[in-house]
């Protein structure tokens, strides 16, 4: 597939690379329309299927990760378009099917669908100029890609209500204090920081990495005892992998592990 609204690249050693997807509609502050979301889903799936890729970074421009769904495109839609034809939201949940870690490297605005997109990623590293918000209320709508569900899980009810009901933005430091963001770094260090984290993840055994992601995500889908049992079974399963033997043998013999992702 040829992409018009995103850029893709890779970084790192050939054997284990980081796949980078950059949202690229800078004039519209990376407003998310159906074509962009189709391209994004396709690029993420291609990286997920590529055995040489160990981790994925999703990023935008300095001024905007994404300022939300494309309001111009949505303005004339009616119920028959959005419900009947599944315009706007059709590809979003596919992002949750990506099994390799996806890090959001966020600078500038992450608003509406842009904020929801960051929350579909596995963790968020923010530049100090990042601003997060769910301003849909100002347009007469509510978040439509998981914002009312993932934001309260990330920051608690009070702040989620505050953001969704007032439409205000929160800056990177507030987002970090609230637990939405895992790290805040100066803008010019954002990609270095994200790449450092991604390359570290690439250096580990892929099966354990995928299992850790799947198990943490299960925390949002199940009660505690079911979640703990799910984790326990994955933990047990990893003892059937070569990487577990390699990782533990390397530790015991004080050498660097060479994971084979098997
Ligand atoms: C379409 C957008 C856009 C958007 C910005 N632009 N956001 N176009 N959809 N969501 C366009 C502007 O129209 C403008 O185009 C150009 O990008 C630059 O934006 P400005 O407003 O001139 O920039 P600035 O003054 O710096 O303000 C930045 C901003 C503001 C605060 C981010 O643009 C803004 O409030 N945008 C809308 C944010 C929003 O409401 N997001 C939620 C959307 S609803 P021109 O042609 O004039 O240069 C949503 C629902 C999700 O996301 C549902 C699930 C999928």
From TrEMBL:
Source species of the chain: Polaromonas aquatica
Q: Which UniProt keywords apply?
A: Lyase
Which enzyme type, at the first EC level?
A: lyase
Looking up InterPro entries in the UniProt record yields: ClpP/crotonase-like_dom_sf, Enoyl-CoA_hyd/isom_CS, Enoyl-CoA_hydra/iso, Enoyl-CoA_hydra_C
Q: PROSITE patterns from the xrefs?
A: ENOYL_COA_HYDRATASE (PS00166)
Keyword Lyase recorded: yes
Question: Record's Gene3D superfamilies?
Answer: 2-enoyl-CoA Hydratase, Chain A, domain 1, Lyase 2-enoyl-coa Hydratase, Chain A, domain 2
A GO term, aspect molecular function: enoyl-CoA hydratase activity
Keyword Zinc applies: no
EC no.? 4.2.1.17
- Write down what this protein is called: Enoyl-CoA hydratase
Annotated family: Belongs to the enoyl-CoA hydratase/isomerase family.
